[in-house]
Amino acid sequence: MKRLAFYAFLIFFTLAAPFLLPDYKTQLATLWLMIIVAIAWDMTGGQMGYNSLGNIFFYGTGMYVAALIAIAIPFDVGEYTNAFSDKIYKFTDTEYFLGAFVGILGAGVFCAISALVIGYITFGLRGPYFAIGTLGVAIAAGELVSNWEWAGGGQGISLPVFPYDLELGKIMFYYMFAGTGVVLFLFARWLYKTRFGAAINAIRDDEEKAEAMGIHTLRYKLTAWSMSAFFVGVAGGISAFQLIHFEPLETAYQTINLGIFMVVCVLLGGKGTLWGPVIGAILFHLFKEVTWNYLLGWQWVALGVLIVVTVVYFKDGITGWLKLVRPEWFGIRVEAKSQRSPAS
Q1: Residues 173-187: pLDDT tens digits?
Q2: Is 13 a member of any domain?
Q3: How far apart are CA 48 and CA 45, in angstroms?
Q4: Across residues 195-208, what is the average pLDDT?
């Protein structure tokens, strides 16, 4: 009964949040973005044991793929992105919404395929070498795109503004992020209970033993990373239309911002758990909003302190700590120690 009431409250708040907190619609949408990238990162980093520092590649690539598809439907991309062009490009309502739908979906599919291709190379690495290798991919992609004039180069890409009321647009983007986050959460909840979930957990625990048991480890690793990349790519595609204008290094392939934040969210909440990335994303987003607004200039110091405290005192994250102090919340029964009276 308590669990049913809890989920009912979550559903109600998710649907009503932009109306209950109308001044924070953009911040709420960003919160859902953090939840999406955190759950997606944990799919490989926590559940499978392959800690990637390059998932931001899929976010940035998703932004560009969605934007380029949306532009290519009505216009020539090279002319549209030409900084010296004097033409004025106007999207009709149909072109805007069709471009957004096809672009965002295409971003997810493209990123999933990219994960398969990149994974064949990077999954030959393990441990810190895999993390550094994926980070190198993300950094290289940002530099390449920033020098790709057809895609806007260093100046980035500008997309049309939401065609109707801007407040309605904020609500729409909130629900797009929230819908993606809910679908990802439910998908992960189902996935981790299947044989696939058991297989990637076996890879995390001991990959050599998993291979000896007959598990095709490369296939499972590629599939898990591809699914993770799909959702991050979709989130990037939504962000492209929400931000309207974005640049390759500062916005799309922001390795030192969102690329690090998604990892911190999972570490804070608890790796390898279903709710850990969600809890971590919520706490980190609140922490970021406070420090970025009230400790400007010291926000990175505060972030460093948060990481140190998390790693030293909460090695298993908030979820792991709660399992120790409140095991009954997680359905763990603890037998009370019987106290024997001393013999007289």
Answers
A1: 999 999 999 999 999
A2: no
A3: 6
A4: 95
Q: Kindly state whether residue 95 falls inside one of the protein's structural domains.
A: yes
User: Per-residue pLDDT for 337 more than 70?
Assistant: no
Measured between alpha carbons, how far apart are the two ends of the chain, in Å?
A: 47
DSSP 50: -
What are the φ and ψ backbone dihedral angles of 15, each rounded to 5 degrees? -75, -35
Same domain, 68 and 217: yes
Domain that holds residue 224: 25-255
Can you give the pLDDT at residue 265? 95
What CA–CA distance (Å, rounded) separates 199 from 220?
Answer: 7
CA 242 to chain centre: 16
209-252 pLDDT, tens digit per residue, is 999 999 999 999 999 999 999 999 999 999 999 999 999 988 99
Place of tokens 């598990």: 215
- In this structure, the answer to whether residues 276 and 163 fall within a common structural domain is no
Taking the CA atoms of the chain, what radius of gyration do you get in angstroms?
Answer: 22
Q: For residue 343, is it within any domain?
A: no
Please count the CA atoms within 13 angstroms of the CA of 236 that sit on its side-chain side: 37
Whether residues 275 and 149 fall in one domain: no
Does 247 share its domain with 260?
no
- Per the CB < 8 A criterion, the answer to whether 254 and 63 are in contact is no
> What letter would DSSP give residue 120?
H
Of 255, 285, 320, which residue constitutes the final position of a domain?
255
Could you tell me which residues are beta bridge partners of residue 246?
157
Same domain, 272 and 234: no
Residues 245 and 293 both lie in one domain: no
H/E segment holding residue 157: strand 157-158
The residue type of 239 is: S
Residues 6+ apart with CB under 8 A from 75: 89
